[in-house]
Each structure stands twice: as structure tokens, then as C-alpha cells.
Amino acid sequence: MLIKLKKISMFNQKILKINAHKIAKKILKTKKNKKFFNKPFKHLIIDNILEKKFAYKCLKDFPNLNKKKLWEKSNIKSIEIKYRSNWDSEFDIPDNIVNLVRILNSSIFLKALSEVFSIPKLIPDPYFTGGGLNVTEKGGLLDVHVDGNYHDASGLNRRLNILVYFNPNWKKNWGGEFGIYSNRGERCVKKIEPIFNRLIAFDTHDYSYHGLPNPINFPKKNPRRSLILYYYTKEKRPKTQVKVSKPHSALWRKKKFLDKKGKIVRNYT
Q1: CA 75 to chain centre
Q2: Of 160, 20, 135, which Cα lies nearest the Cα of 67?
């Protein structure tokens, strides 16, 4: 039995490594394929990021919202209405999704991201602070905001976000497009549809305003689904990306660019 398990594990490792290299190649080709954009902040878009069967296996592994212990609900009117998985470690992640997370946190993937975004020495987050699965039901939203800048558990500086969408047969009247805003958060300059198997990666800093502020209209039995992961560096953000130098949480447009508690700087360890 031990020998059989070992063979299965080795085979799985080989497949994951092959997939990691395929995805990394897609990342590295984004500038050539004009899928990488510099304004209003650096971001890239890749469709069909995963093999179709793998993507559907991940979708199938999304836990049901009825399993309340697996989810944290945020319900702050006009600011944030959604569910997020409450992973403490990779051992809490469903099988197929953890394989995807391993690929997206691998050195193979990180090196490709580092190269195209010119951010060396990226580090993933084994604590999954703020990251994980996101589900937004009909009426849910996410106000325009910039993300927090500091990771308490490691003391690292947040630099990149990625999103992978799992919304088959998305229709325009469902809404839920990822909005990219001007560097003051006043004007939406681009909307990216949350279509199935699409990856978005973007620079996260004090001027990278984004969100989906309009309540979505997804079908009741088919909510908006995504995987979100964050990446960090020991090195601080460039000064041109810094408006608030001390650690802060997400700063929201509808709160006049303060955090949920009405502050700019937060307590940190």
C-alpha cells in the first residue's frame, strides 16, 4: 500500500509541476501578447489559465455556503457583502483547490510574476490572511478601495494580488465585473468580466483602486466565485506607491478612504 501511495503522489507531483510551468509561460508571454497593462496600475489578464478539466474540478470543490463553519461572512452595507473561506493553513483547503494553490504559490509561478511585474523576491502567504475562496451572492458588492499594506504574521509588505474566476456561462446582466479605477479612485477606467477560468494579477498599493461597488445580479443558485491570493516582499513599496507609510487596512471610497473603523492607520503587531 505504501508503494502504491508513493507512486500516486509522485505522479501527482509531476503533473502539478508541468501545469506550473505551463501557467508560468502564459504569465511571461503577457507583454508580448498585449495582455499586460501599465495604466492606471500594472495588471494582466489571462483567459483559460488552467486546463479545462482542472478548472471544473476546482469549481466542484467549492464548499457549499450552507457549511457555515467553512466561511466568514462580511455584511457591511454599501462597503462589503460577501463570503470568504476561513482557512488557517493549506490543510483546510479542498483537494483540487489545494493543488491549484500549490501551483500559484510555487517558486515557478512566483518567478514569472516577479519578472513581468519587476518585483523581485515575492513571497506567498501560508497564513492565507485575507486570501482564499470568495463567494458573492445576488445583491453582494465590494466598494472601491485600496488594500492593506502590511502582513502582521510575517512583517512583510503586500505587493501583488491574483484572482482566478470560476463563473461558467457568465452573462453581462449578472454584473460583478472587476473594476479598475483612476489613481484617486474617482473614475472607473476599465471593467474586467469575471468569466470562468480567467486570471487577473495586479500591483497592489495605495493608488491601485479597485472594486465592484454595484450590487451584483448573479442567479441565486449560481453565486459569483473566485480564488484570491496575495504576495509579499521584505522590501517596502516604492515611494511613488505610498500614500500611508504606516500599516493600514483596506481604505474605502464610501468611507472617504478610511478603513472600516473610520481610521487610516491601524494597530499592528
Answers
A1: 19
A2: 135
**Residue 212 to residue 136: CA distance in whole angstroms:** 11
Stronger pLDDT, 239 or 4, i.e. the higher one: 239
The grid cell for 51 is: 486546463
Distance CA 18, CA 227 (A): 21
Q: Which structural domain, as residue segments, surrounds residue 236?
A: 12-255
What is the model's pTM?
Answer: 0.95
CA distance 218 to 17: 35
Q: For residue 130, which of 105, 152, 113, 103 has the smallest C-alpha distance?
A: 152
| Segment 126-137, tens digit of pLDDT | 999 999 999 999
User: Is residue 69 included in any domain, yes or no?
Assistant: yes
Beta strands (DSSP E) in 22-151 are 36-37, 43-46, 71-76, 80-85, 123-124, 132-136, 141-146, 150-151
Number of domains comprising the chain:
1
